[in-house]
Amino acid sequence: LQMLHAIKGQSHRHSLFELDSALASPIPHSSSPISSSSDSLLSSSNSSSNSPKRRRVDKLDRRLSYNARIFRGMRTSGVKPSADDVQTCRREARDAFTDASERDARLRAIDDALDTVEELILFVPEVAATETEQFFVNELSAFLAWIYSSMRFSGYISCLDGHFRDLKERFRRLLPAIPYTSEQRHLITLRFSQLCLEYAEMVDEESLDWCKVDMEYLDKMIAVRERRNSIGKSSGTDNYDAEREERRLRDIADRIRYNLERIQLAWRDCASESRVPEKLV
Questions:
Q1: How far apart are alpha carbons 246 and 226 in whole angstroms?
Q2: Do residues 64 and 72 touch, judged by C-beta distance below 8 A?
Q3: Residue 51 and residue 183: Cα distance in Å, rounded?
């Protein structure tokens, strides 16, 4: 039996795709550089030159997806994409993947999405200090989650080890960018824990440790808000926004904890069979 068969009664692909609608945070509206200036940026980044070196760069650029070339041009011009831009790219990638009728076309859609993500990751700051930056990183994590969940459940299973290593390294870049005091940090950890469950055959202890450390901070945040809400109620003051925030954090914590428990259960089931979990090929 494959390890995921030990996790009974779950539709992991469905649960991950429903994650954003269940726990969605509003994205501050901003004008999209993609719609307003992408064509001029793209043309400037691909301007012709007689230099052989420049022609080689142009040739490589043309192999990238359209959105990847746009973001490369934006980076060259010093323009930052918004969370709305990332969300738009995710919708476009999902539509292209869904509309593809052949396996090669679906694979190209995934490759194009990965090209785009590689360019977007270069915009992630070392520390996302503002709410706008944190929403951007959060949306990028949602894009990554869609890509690797699609790969996991769409027949691309010949290199699951490599897929998990790649997604882990990308989340290694995203997670430290947002402080533990931000709800966005815990939403990203939730997505990562869901991917760990979907790639349960490949997940390692370090990945689970990331989730466990996050849980410790999340539990502290919940305890602080619980005390504040309790004090407010005892004084006859209701703070509905604070209560909703506490419920959201509890929901995130419960989901992360559930994912970790299911992974541990799957590992125990495999250990009880006295053999190493199979790698899907």
A1: 7
A2: yes
A3: 49
Q: Domains plus CATH for the chain?
A: 3-29+37-45+53-272 (1.20.190)
Structure-block tokens of residue 23: 């726990």
Residue environment code for 186-223, b if the CB has 16+ CB neighbours within 10 A, otherwise e: bbbbbbbbbbbbbbbbbbeeebbebbeebbeebeebbe
Using DSSP's 3-state secondary structure scheme, residue 144 falls into helix
Amino acid at 133: E
DSSP annotation of 199: T
Chain centroid, CA 154 distance in Å: 18
Residue pair 167/144 in contact (Cβ under 8 Å)? The answer is yes
Name the CA radius of gyration of the chain, rounded: 21
* Spatial distance between the Cα atoms of 43 and 201, rounded to a whole number of angstroms: 45
d(CA 180, CA 85): 25
For the whole model, what pTM was predicted?
0.75
d(C-alpha 227, C-alpha 231), whole Å: 6
What's the pLDDT tens digit per position in 55-73? 233 334 447 889 999 999 9
Nearest CA to 123 out of 137, 110, 141 is that of 137
Q: Which amino acid is at 175?
A: L
pLDDT score for 28: 46
Q: What is the predicted pLDDT for the residue at 237?
A: 66
Percentage of residues in the chain having pLDDT higher than 70: 71
Taken as a whole, the chain contains a residue count of 281
Distance CA 104, CA 106 (A): 5
Nearest to 118 by CA among 89, 88, 92, 97: 89
Q: How do residues 199-226 score in pLDDT, each as one tens digit?
A: 998 899 999 999 999 999 999 999 998 8
Reading the block at residue 90, the tokens are 């995710």
Question: Which amino acid would we find at residue 59?
Answer: K
